[in-house]
Amino acid sequence: MVIIGQANIRCSRELFTEALPLYRTHPKLSFIDCYLSVLARKTGTVPLFTFDQKMTHQLPGVTLLTSQ
């Protein structure tokens, strides 16, 4: 957490600190996927829709979109 502790780094520290453990638990996902999952939950915009099947199986509140 040294990076987000820097005053010149502008980010949502709350979201970052919740997304990082998800990212560590699911190393096949990108950090952005984990961050978006937390953001959707925090803002009440779940489900988070995606075309990424692995994301739907690993993160809560994520729903797979189909091309139908």
Describe the structure.
The protein is mainly alpha-helical and 68 residues long. The protein has one domain (13-64). The protein has three helices and two strands. α3 links the parallel β1 (48-50) and β2. α1 (13-25) packs across α2. The termini are far apart.
Features:
mainly alpha; 2 strands; elongated; single chain; two-stranded parallel ribbon
Number of domains: 1
Question: Helix/strand-derived class?
Answer: mainly alpha
Strand order of the largest sheet: 1-2
Shape: elongated
> How many whole angstroms does the radius of gyration measure?
13 Å
Mean pLDDT: 86
Total helices: the number is: 3
Order of helices and strands: HHEHE
Low-confidence stretches: none
Strand proportion, as a percent range, falls in 5-15%
Please outline the major beta sheet. 2 strands, parallel
Please report the total strand number as a whole number.
Answer: 2
Distance between the termini: 42 Å
Q: Approximately how much helix is present in the residues?
A: 40-55%
Summary?
The chain is mostly helical. It has helices at residues 13-25, 31-43, 53-58, and strands at 48-50, 62-64. It has a two-stranded parallel sheet.
What is this structure's SSE topology?
Blueprint: H1 13-25, H2 31-43, E1 48-50, H3 53-58, E2 62-64
Parallel strand pairs: 1-2
